[in-house]
Every structure is written in structure tokens, then in C-alpha cells.
Amino acid sequence: MLKMGVIRESSSPYSSPVVVVKKKDGTNRVCIDFKKVNKITVFDPEPMPTATDRFRQLTGSTIFSKIDLSKGYWQIPVREEDIPKTAFATPDGTYECLRMPFGMVNSGATLKRGMRKMLKGMKNVVYYWDDLLAHTETFAEHLETLMELFSRLTKANLTVRPSKCILGTDNVDFIGHSLKEGQKGLLLENVTKILNAPRPETKKQVRSFLGLAGYYREFIPNFAAITAPLSDMTRKGCPNRILWGPAQEKAYQTVRELMSRDPVLRKKLSGAEKNYSTMEKECLSIVWGIKKFELYLQGVKFVLQTDHKPLTYLNSAKFVNNRIMRWVMYLQNFDMRVESIKGSDNVGADFLSRVCE
């Protein structure tokens, strides 16, 4: 760090201790404990857009490039008058940080603000900490976006790590999800962790399991109800060692099963809905699916493909069925074109509908 110009020797009156943290791979990481400095630091908030907000921006994109900044924190210089406050003690003497250190209360906010300002006006680039994702619908547009992005990175004097960058792909992992051909799915690595992990036996282990599974709750219908037997066992007053019974086992196995299926969207028909006519069932699936993705479909043109030909007349036919009329009124809020396709071209949707019957 001294040779890289990240730190320098210091005679500052401040002196934070150094702690050694063991990483998952067994190696050690040297960190600075800025607790005392953080207590007297004025908090500088900078909100981070949620993952949901980020994915909403990706609607319609099919080409992606993932850019990873090289040691993002260290690329931001510390203001000269603040450098002494970053001082830390080692057996070899006291040093202070010339580049922004990890662990200070406002380091994260500073990084996020810097990214936001650098990317201002670029609609086809989103960020999450020091990860950047360029996304477009066409290759030509993608090249223009990358040219602009690299130009801004150069002006900001920021460098990237080539070994971690992925350019011009239709399949990329971002914020714990898999993006492929314009669709968001479960990240195989995390699903594998859940499926291969031993059954949790303690409160801490159950919370960890629920935390990871909960990140993908949008893919697990009725997640809260399904996992209630497990959540109940982590409440205050319950023993640390989980009393594993039939209800807990069923909840655990149900979550694992649903995650391993990984359909993008599913709904089970209620008793009354099972009695609907074929036309009504097909129309119901369209209405429910559009409602589920309403945030993505509002204000954009899209094509609705169906292998049930009568539905191609949704926007022109006169229906006497009150239920279908209500649905048609709802669908008129969207700029969509209904297109008929062969049943043989719709095997994916047919398979998923049968899985959930």
C-alpha cells in the first residue's frame, strides 16, 4: 500500500487500531477499525437505489456489459485536511490514507455519490457499488453506450479490472440474479448453495437460510406463509437449537423445491377459477401476468403472444361475458399487440403451466 501510494507515514494525533479478519478462503485481511473516528463523524447519507429499481431500468435490454472498477474505494482521493483523521497504528509505525479507506462511515456514501455523478444522464448504465452494467436493445446502441462510458471513466481517472469485465453478452450475473436474453432469473450459484447446504439446526443457521431464500422471494409464491414454521422458530424465547418437526421439514423442502424449478412466473388456479372456460382461463393468465409485471409494461409497446387464437380479437371483439369485459377494460391501459402463434412454438409456457397445476 505504501509503494502504491495508498498510504504514507504519519505523525497525526489520530490513531485507529488495525485488526486482522479471516476471509472465507482461510487467508487474512488487514482492516482498520475506525469505530472511534466514526462516532465523531457527521453522517453523510447517499441513498442506494434498490435492486428492484435497478432491474426495472433493464426492461427490454438484451445485450449487457459488466464493468468492474479496480479497487473502487482506493480510486477516490482523501481530501488533504481529512487525511490525518485516517491514521492507523502498526508495529512498524503510524500511517495515514491518501486514498479512501474501507470502514469509514461515509466511505460508501462517497463512492455511491461519485458513481451517480459520473453516470448522470446515462440511461443505459446502472451501478451497484463499484459494479457497472451497460444494457441496450441493439448492438449498435451498445457500442455507443460503451464508448461514452469509457470516456467518462477516463475523465474521472477511474480504472477497471479487465479480468472481471464482460462485454457484449446476452447472459450476465448482476446483484445476485442471472440476466439472460432479457429475462431475470435465479443465480445458479446461490440456488446451488441452498440445495447443497446441510439442513439448518440453529436459529442463526435458519435466519441465514431464510435470508438467502428471501432474496428470491419474488420467485417463490406465498413465501411468508410457506416459511412461517421456520420463521416462528427464530423468535425470541425459542431455544437456540431448532426443534425440527414435520411442519418445519415441509417448509424447508418446499422452498428448496420451488427454487430448483425456477419458472419466471406461476399461479395456481383457485377452485372457482378451475371451472372457468378455456377462453376465460387463457385470458386470466394474460391479465394476471401483465398485472405481475405492470411496472415494466406501463408506457411501453409490447407484443403479447398466445396460442389461443380467439384471444387475438381481445381489442376488437364485443364480449357479453362480464368477467372478460372487465379484463379487456384493464388491458386497454396497455399499448400491446396480440399475436397468434402455434402451440408447438409455445412449449415453454405450456410446460410451466402444467408444472404448477
UniProtKB/TrEMBL annotation:
InterPro entries the record matches: DNA/RNA_pol_sf, Retrovirus_Pol_polyprotein, Rev_trsase/Diguanyl_cyclase, RT_dom, RT_RNaseH
Domain of life per record: Eukaryota
Annotated GO biological process: proteolysis
Record keywords, A-Z: Endonuclease, Hydrolase, Nuclease, Nucleotidyltransferase, Protease, RNA-directed DNA polymerase, Transferase
Alphabetized Gene3D superfamilies for the sequence: 3.30.70.270, HIV Type 1 Reverse Transcriptase, subunit A, domain 1 (3.10.10.10)
Protein name: Reverse transcriptase domain-containing protein
Residue intervals of the Reverse transcriptase domain: 2-179
One Gene Ontology term of the molecular function aspect: peptidase activity
